[in-house]
Amino acid sequence: MFLRFFETLRAHGVPVSLREHLAFLDGMAAGLVTYDVDGFYYLARCALVKDERHVDRFDRAFAATFSGLEQVSLQQVLEAMDLPADWLEKQAEKHLTPEERAEIEALGGFDKLMETLRQRLAEQQGRHQGGSKWIGTAGTSPFGAYGYNPEGVRIGQDESRHRRAVKVWDKREFRNLDDGVELGTRNIKVALKRLRAWARDGAAEELDLDDTIRSTAKAGYLDVRTRPERRNAVKVLLFLDVGGSMDDHVKVVEELFSAARAEIRHLEHFYFHNCLYEGVWRDNRRRWDAVTPTREVLNTYGPDYRCIFVGDASMSPYEIAYPGGANEHWNEEAGQVWLQRAREQWASNLWINPTPEAHWRHTHSIRMIREIFEDRMVPMTLEGLSAGMRMLT
Predict the structure, then answer these.
(1) Is the dihedral of CA 239, 154, 247, 12 positive or negative?
(2) Phi/psi at 235 (nearest 5 deg)?
(3) Model pTM greater than 0.85?
């Protein structure tokens, strides 16, 4: 049972053992979760994941194994489950007006009411399509999904299509970037090697050959001298744009993140979406309830840090220039205000854009970000990264 799930986890790089798989099966056999998708997910993650670095890989394996379950219709669920009468009655109060309930009870009482409620819940799988007024799909209304409007509010759509929505009326979930990705090329690491500031600190553990020879010749006997190991002392603060149009660039940004982890000892990272606002976060799974105030970041990390923003800078211009223009929440201050504060705090700063440089002039928001950063924006190419590292040194 769940053997395919176990094999998929191993294929996605989650180091799950047979003992952990058996513990997961014991939990299922004990009835720890029943008809609860969220509970099933957390039980599996608790039993099968030993290191938080593997949670993203687990999520991908979980989705690959159980994809399609969400397509089971509500009518199938209602037919398969014996729903409690008190729950159905509460749903009836929610979905039916008092007039409808009175009419149904007059026709057949509570049993008829429950039957009608089941039909109503099943009928809600329908949708409004086309048109220019109602909230629906495939139309030109400014409200809805899978249509087109140059300045719309996206409601009920799993991902961006035209990248033109001013607001998104959904609680979207992003995943963390994987810093364990193996690079397809060593070019990014080579470019990051330019960003170094060597220093010797800590315990004296490295043999100092020149001083040993000098001291031995002077003393007349072997006088071994040691010194602290030389390390890269540069400090980097990395802000990573995730979600939306950045989904197209996940692979190359993960390669950059992985290389930065390997090459830079003092690295701090935060995530943001589209533009910098009053809050950032470290974990995309908790970006709604574990937000770090941007002002706290400004006060915590001193001006000796190099600040790097990574993002395509492709968004509605309102998100940069106006209070309340943020894509997913109401921001009291414009995004450009927070970007300017970041530039003032960290004078050594840079914006890395994964969008090809030839396309920059076609996007208004990219031009705005370049003006804020005084043209300190480079493309995510070998030449661009090399030039960016020279700007930071």
Answers:
(1) positive
(2) -115, 130
(3) no
Residue-wise pLDDT for 116-156, tens only, equals 656 665 555 555 454 544 444 545 444 455 554 454 545 55
Amino acid at position 155, single letter: I
Amino acid found at 303: P
Question: DSSP letter string over 148-187?
Answer: --TT-EE-S-SS-SSS--SEE-S--------TTPPPS-SH
Q: Return d(Cα 223, Cα 217) in angstroms, integer.
A: 9
Q: Do 245 and 163 contact (CB within 8 A), yes or no?
A: yes
End-to-end distance of the chain based on CA atoms, in angstroms? 56
In this structure, what is the dihedral angle of CA atoms 124, 125, 130, 134, given to the nearest 10 degrees? 30
Judge residue 196's burial from the number of C-beta atoms within 10 Å of its C-beta, 0-12 exposed, 13-18 middle, 19 or more buried: middle
Task: At 376, list the tokens.
Answer: 């300190």
Residues 6+ apart with CB under 8 A from 327: 165, 166, 167, 168, 244, 273, 274, 315, 316, 319
Region for 236 from its dihedrals, namely left if φ exceeds 0, alpha if ψ lies in -120 to 50, beta otherwise: beta
Nearest residue to 191 via CA among 346, 350, 27, 11: 350
**How many whole angstroms separate alpha carbon 180 and alpha carbon 260?**
11
Cite the DSSP H helix spans in the chain. Answer: 3-11, 18-29, 37-48, 55-66, 74-80, 85-95, 98-123, 187-192, 209-219, 250-263, 294-300, 318-321, 335-345, 364-372, 382-392
Within its chain, how far is the Cα of 133 from the centroid? 33
Q: Does residue 96 contact residue 120 with C-beta atoms inside 8 Å?
A: yes
> How does pLDDT run across 195-231, given as a tens digit for each residue?
655 444 556 677 778 888 888 888 888 888 887 666 6
Radius of gyration of the chain from its Cα atoms, rounded to whole angstroms: 28
How many Å apart are CA 61 and CA 273, to the nearest integer? 25
